[in-house]
Amino acid sequence: MNDSEKRRRELLEQTRQRYSDYWTPPAIHPRYSGSYNRLYGGEGEENVSTFGARVFVCLLLFAAFVTMDMKKQEVFHVGSDRIVKEITTDLDVAEVWKNL
Fold first, then answer.
1. Which of 28, 37, 64, 87 is disulfide-compatible with 42, CB 3.0–4.6 A?
2. pLDDT class for 57, splitting at 50, 70, 90?
3. Using CA atoms, how far apart are residues 83 and 72, in angstroms rounded to an integer?
């Protein structure tokens, strides 16, 4: 192999390294949508999760229920016994639909 062939091979390798897509994610794969949305902005509105707020409200209601049960208090003329009764009552969906 002479000097011109070696130089040509080096230039070819440098060009391959420079224009290689090895380290950049392809634009068509959904797995990389997060990185592209970060770079170019998202399409439309982002979905905001309300899971944390719902868990917080559930914990507050449960704490209120436990407090009512321990102190035998009533709130708006409803005690913990009535809450348990209403939760355990079987619900007939057809009957409720007729009443609407």
1. 37
2. very high
3. 12
Upper half-sphere CA count for residue 38 (Cβ side, 13 Å): 4
**Residue 76, burial from CB neighbour count under 10 angstroms (0-12, 13-18, 19+):** exposed
Residue written as tokens 């060009």?
15
pLDDT of residue 70: 85
Are 68 and 74 within 8 A, CB to CB?
yes
Six-digit token pair at 27? Answer: 């634009």
In contact, 35 and 25? CB cutoff 8 Å: yes
Neighbour tally for 80: CB within 10 Å: 19
pLDDT tens digit sequence for 3-46: 889 899 999 998 888 887 776 666 666 777 777 777 776 665 56
Is 93:86 a contact under the CB 8 Å cutoff?
no
